[in-house]
């Protein structure tokens, strides 16, 4: 680095001797001479008058010494500010999240992080899984949280985050809501409330219906998990959702869980990041905190 050469030059000038500067810098005398020679070659001017007893500055050397001292001071200030930045953790994080994660899981995680790192600004964009994937790949977001299976690639890092239990819910007055156990065939020819195509929840429910040969009697599509939940509570039909979405409504009896015989439905949540998108200190700390909470939980 040029700062290393300038440091050697300033030390030689202040010690007025190559060997004394070498000892102070823990360098060999030939190493010190090489730094000075490289500076002189780069600037095209002789910087020092050499004699057996001491060295003195040329006119060009006097100019460089004056500016080198300023450069050293500014470099040290910058180094200290960067260290402060790393210790305090400041900056901006652009986060994308699919609906279930963004509306029901992230808010608590962000509140905990913000309490510890109040100088970090965070902005959350909520969309379906395909929208978040596209935004992360397009470098519009620093990080994304998606539902279902995300494939790692040459451009995309995928970090497993947590598991999510999927359940089938019905209006509290639905004929199936009084059943202790619901057989899979009983879900056929029912009115279903679904998420839109591109949603991780929709992809999971479509796969489930295909594997169990379930054909809806009729279906209604909503572009948010909140809409699906409200539609079920209003009596529109049954739906497959994350337990996170309806845990309060299950407790109050606004919706009922249809317990499927010998069947536990589960999917994965993943963190995605574009490999070409650099990670700030704030983002690195945010990821560490999230993954630590996941392991502890």
Describe this structure in words.
This protein has three domains: 2-88, Winged helix-like DNA-binding domain superfamily/Winged helix DNA-binding domain (Arc Repressor Mutant, subunit A, Orthogonal Bundle); 91-161 and 268-296, Periplasmic binding protein-like II (D-Maltodextrin-Binding Protein, domain 2, 3-Layer(aba) Sandwich), CATH 3.40.190.10; 164-266, Periplasmic binding protein-like II (D-Maltodextrin-Binding Protein, domain 2), CATH 3.40.190.10. The strands form three sheets. Strands 3, 4, 5, 6, 9, 10 and 11 form a seven-stranded mixed β-sheet that branches. The chain is of the alpha/beta class and 297 residues long. The chain has helices at 2-15, 18-25, 29-43, 59-88, 99-104, 106-116, 129-137, 200-211, 225-233, 243-252, 281-296; strands at 48-50, 55-57, 91-97, 120-126, 143-147, 156-171, 191-195, 218-222, 239-242, 255-258, 265-274. The radius of gyration is 32 Å and the shape is rod-shaped.
